[in-house]
Amino acid sequence: MELKFARHRRLRTTDSMRALVRETQLHPEDFVYPIFVVEGEDKRNAVSSMPGVFQVSLDHLNAEMQELKDLGIKSVMVFGVPDHKDAVGSEAYHDHGIVQKAISQIKEFFPELVVIADTCLCQYTDHGHCGIVENGKILNDPTLDLLARTAVSQAKAGADIIAPSNMMDGFVAAIRHGLDENGFEDIPVMSYAVKYSSAFYGPFREAAHSTPQFGDRKTYQMDPANRLEAMREAESDIQEGADFLIVKPALSYLDIIRDVKNNLNVPVVAYNVSGEYAMVKAAAANGWIDEKSLVLEMFTGMKRAGADLIITYYSKDAARWLKEQ
Ligand code: PBG
Hints:
The protein is an alpha/beta fold. It has helices at 15-20, 58-71, 98-109, 141-157, 171-181, 202-208, 228-240, 254-263, 274-285, 291-305, 315-324, and strands at 31-38, 44-46, 54-56, 75-81, 114-119, 132-134, 137-139, 161-164, 190-195, 244-248, 268-272, 309-312.
């Protein structure tokens, strides 16, 4: 009897053959590099839970940007870590705050880099929440005005994209309105539309000094169990004027990335967050995994799931590894 079956292995015989039929490619321009900028001079503080990540002062910023440029990375996401915090996060919308200074410095020396401003209040508030707090509650509408002011001050400093991450309802509408009123109608909004309340943000809160001083973020960030809710969030942000949608975290939410990609026609961004980075770094430090292969496989998975861009602390390593291949 003659056996009949498909010979899938024909297309896997050599490196070149595999390259011909590869469906997903990674490029250095897929990566957005997040950077933490602190006040003061000659600071390059290691973040202990994120080996290879540093909080840098402005005098170290150009060296970092030069490195990105040399590696072919086209965009950077800037997080400010101010010395002074208060109840209403004043430093977030101060025209000469740390993040505004960092943005204008990058644009002065590296005009071709796309500078994305993270727009939130939690690094700037003394209570560590992303909005105004009254009687233990995080207020929605009064926070919107502060977010719009923050976005406008970042646009004035030269930001190319505004990326609001605080998960108040209506934040894209408020920011779009604020930008348009101030002559920034050409500045796109990259919304953290689908942001889950996640244990994977732990190491970031060390890096950004943004741990909430009471309670948690569950009244504004999403429940990890929900999928339909992600579509509601994404759809309303599109209606409010978002130009990109971020899904965050990435690894445990690849199904959500695919849902957003299939249902909405804007670029989708995956945020490979701090806890995902820390886990891989820890395993690599123990010699338990092959870091390079594993990281590139993770990113291939995110792109295959539908991500057009990946925000990751691994940007530089990944770009370097792609060059070596
Ligand atoms: C600010 C913000 C957070 C992250 C990005 N922007 C922290 C949070 O919501 O608590 C997390 C990024 C990461 O973990 O890498 N709201």
